[in-house]
């Protein structure tokens, strides 16, 4: 039995794409799809039937006048009137249904992409330009010509026009079968050629995604508040405009070039249509003049000829359809690919994480990691045991691999070789969700959500985020409670001036909010707390306050603290010094000072600077 894939393999990509767009409709709403199919059929065949009846009515008039018998004409009139009413009544219903289905398709595709992008365990796919291009397309779904919803809205215009033409051509078969055949062969070829051209232009546009993304980046730099300060200070606007212009042209020139051959297809197809029309008219006139056909037959065939010409192949609706035929399959295939990564994971049946893990230690064993497309390892055979319920501080030069270590600990990336274990169980075998609930992280580049303070803290454990008592407790421990209480709407203030009633926070205030988020996750059950440069944006007093409470904050937890500030680091139970993706020194503060190695040297440098400043 051939599968659907076997059948569709031989279809041209434009038709295959279109079928995959249409295939979405019954999934979204069977009822609306049924209404749409019924509406399309009515819009396709009712006008043809009305045309035939009109022909019969006109053709019968001389006979009716001659015999004075008007009953047949009256019935024909009633039937034509009925068909016109049905056609008119279904048109708005069809349009409204298509518009709703179009919105459903846009929403469905965006949701699928959001869901799919979050499916893989790690974040490596977000550094893959092909995935980023597809995400860009999905983002643009509701705003530009790639709008799949618009393609659905175009269906009531396009499909009935095709079917109407087909039915009208069937009528022409009764005039001359070979003429009917010419029409029957010609119009699908015209439609196909035009669709293929639109599809080709759409595919070329899509293939320019990388360059288009670059130009959009320049545009967004000029339009978003974040970089606005630097753009003014460095006087970057002209440079940005010039770069935008260049990259936009580079992206769009191949698209313009591919449009040129379309003209030849367009002239070729319109000439063929003209010729076949002319031939049909000449034959009809000849048949009429020579009395080969009755007046009624000529009237019916003239109506059929008009119907055969009513298909659309050159309008915007066709462009929307072929654009959707390019983009929708790509988006769906990306969503399927990313989702299947999740399925693979489910098939390996992850081991359950014991409730009190880590009980003994988390171990990095000869762990090596290289970022995609990087030319050197960020972690180079890292061996490191993190004892449970103790605090570990990591210091090292810029680029030594400290943040990478945190990312691997959170399973945002998988090691290239070696392994990470939690109480002896490989991290890769544990359920990533359960592990991530066990771990609270304050990243160096933590997210600043333009949401309320309540949401910014509560997102540390979304299932508990309505518990105000817990929120206050977490905020208090992170030193963020005063910041929040002083906001105009307290917990309900939006932390972004881009929204009405919102406020902007300072870097240090943001850091306290982000720390509160991590503390909230700890309250909800996280047993490992990782702080990557938690005090970098705090003033000296706030930093001192935070570290005075550090032991209280981290009591019973397994903590990893990454910092360049030695005043912070020295309080940890154990300190490791990292360089070039490995550990070169390991011990307590006193042991490392005594060893007089790298740590002692860095500590002395910083202490000296502080003394000099004092
Ligand atoms: N997403 C990435 N893709 C490619 N290379 C990366 C990526 N992130 C980091 N690197 C590289 O990996 C190495 C380790 O970076 P990492 O951020 O872990 O250093 P770090 O010790 O945290 O530095 P810092 O003290 O400056 O925060 C660096 O050479 C860096 O350039």
From TrEMBL:
Gene3D superfamilies: ABC transporter type 1, transmembrane domain, P-loop containing nucleotide triphosphate hydrolases. Residues 362-605 form the ABC transporter domain. It is a multi-pass membrane protein. GO terms for molecular function: ATP binding. The keyword Transmembrane applies. It holds the Pfam family ABC_tran. The chain crosses the membrane at residues 34-61, 165-190, 265-286, 292-314. PROSITE patterns: ABC_TRANSPORTER_1, ABC_TRANSPORTER_2. It is found in: Cell membrane. The keyword Transmembrane helix applies. Keywords: ATP-binding, Membrane, Nucleotide-binding, Transmembrane, Transmembrane helix. PANTHER family: ATP-BINDING CASSETTE SUB-FAMILY B, ATP-BINDING CASSETTE SUB-FAMILY B MEMBER 6. This is ABC transporter ATP-binding protein. The lineage of its organism: Bacteria, Bacillati, Actinomycetota, Actinomycetes, Propionibacteriales.
């Amino acid at each position: 039995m051939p599968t659907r894939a076997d059948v569709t393999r031989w279809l041209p990509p434009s038709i295959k794409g279109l079928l995959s767009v249409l295939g979405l409709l019954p999934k979204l709403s069977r009822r609306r799809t049924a209404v749409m199919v019924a509406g399309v059929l009515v819009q396709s065949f009712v006008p043809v039937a009305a045309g035939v009846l009109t022909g019969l009515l006109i053709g019968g008039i001389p006979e009716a006048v001659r015999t004075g018998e008007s009953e047949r004409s009256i019935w024909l009139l009633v039937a034509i009137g009925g068909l016109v009413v049905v056609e008119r009544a279904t048109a708005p219903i069809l349009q409204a249904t298509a518009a709703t289905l179009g919105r459903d398709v846009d929403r469905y595709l965006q949701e699928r992409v959001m869901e799919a992008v979050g499916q893989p365990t790690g974040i490596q796919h977000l550094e893959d330009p092909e995935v980023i291009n597809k995400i860009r397309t999905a983002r643009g779904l509701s705003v530009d010509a790639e709008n799949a919803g618009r393609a659905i809205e175009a269906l009531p215009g396009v499909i009935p026009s095709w079917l109407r033409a087909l039915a009208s051509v069937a009528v022409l078969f009764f005039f001359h079968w070979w003429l009917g055949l010419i029409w029957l062969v010609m119009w699908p070829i015209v439609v196909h050629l035009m669709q293929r051209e639109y599809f080709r232009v759409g595919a070329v546009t899509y293939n320019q995604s990388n360059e288009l993304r670059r130009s959009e980046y320049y545009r967004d730099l000029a339009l978003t508040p974040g970089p606005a300060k630097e753009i003014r200070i460095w006087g970057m606007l002209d440079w940005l405009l010039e770069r935008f212009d260049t990259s936009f042209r580079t992206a769009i020139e191949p698209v313009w070039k591919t449009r040129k051959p379309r003209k030849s297809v367009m002239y070729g197809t319109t000439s063929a249509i003209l010729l076949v029309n002319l031939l049909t008219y000449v034959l009809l006139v000849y048949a009429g003049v020579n009395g080969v056909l009755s007046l009624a037959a000529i009237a019916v065939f003239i109506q059929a000829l008009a119907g055969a010409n009513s298909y659309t192949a050159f309008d915007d609706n066709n462009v929307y359809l072929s654009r959707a035929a390019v983009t929708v399959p790509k988006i769906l295939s990306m969503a399927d690919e990313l989702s299947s990564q999740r399925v693979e994971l489910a098939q390996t049946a992850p081991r359950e994480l014991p409730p009190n893990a880590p009980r003994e230690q988390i171990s990095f064993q000869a762990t090596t990691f290289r970022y995609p497309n990087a030319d050197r390892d960020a972690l180079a055979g890292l061996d490191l045991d993190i004892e449970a319920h103790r605090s570990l501080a990591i210091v090292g030069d810029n680029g030594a691999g400290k943040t990478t270590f945190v990312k691997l600990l959170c399973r945002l990336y998988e090691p290239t070789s070696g392994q990470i274990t939690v109480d002896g169980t490989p991290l890769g075998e544990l359920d990533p969700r359960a592990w991530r609930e066990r771990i609270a992280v304050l990243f160096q580049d933590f997210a600043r959500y333009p949401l309320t303070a309540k949401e910014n803290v509560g997102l540390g454990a979304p299932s508990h985020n309505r518990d105000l008592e817990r929120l206050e407790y977490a905020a208090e421990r992170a030193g963020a409670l005063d910041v929040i209480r002083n906001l105009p709407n307290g917990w309900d203030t939006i932390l972004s001036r881009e929204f009405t009633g919102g406020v902007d926070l300072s870097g240090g205030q943001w850091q306290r909010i982000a720390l509160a988020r991590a503390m909230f996750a700890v309250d909800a059950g996280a047993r490992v707390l990782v702080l990557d440069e938690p005090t970098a944006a705090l003033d000296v007093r706030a930093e001192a306050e935070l570290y005075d409470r550090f032991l209280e904050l981290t009591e019973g937890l397994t903590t990893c603290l990454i910092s360049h500030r030695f005043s912070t680091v020295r309080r940890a139970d154990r300190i490791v010094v990292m360089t070039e993706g490995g550990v070169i020194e390991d011990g307590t503060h006193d042991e490392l000072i005594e060893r007089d190695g790298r740590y002692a040297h860095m500590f002395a440098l910083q202490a000296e600077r502080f003394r000099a400043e004092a």
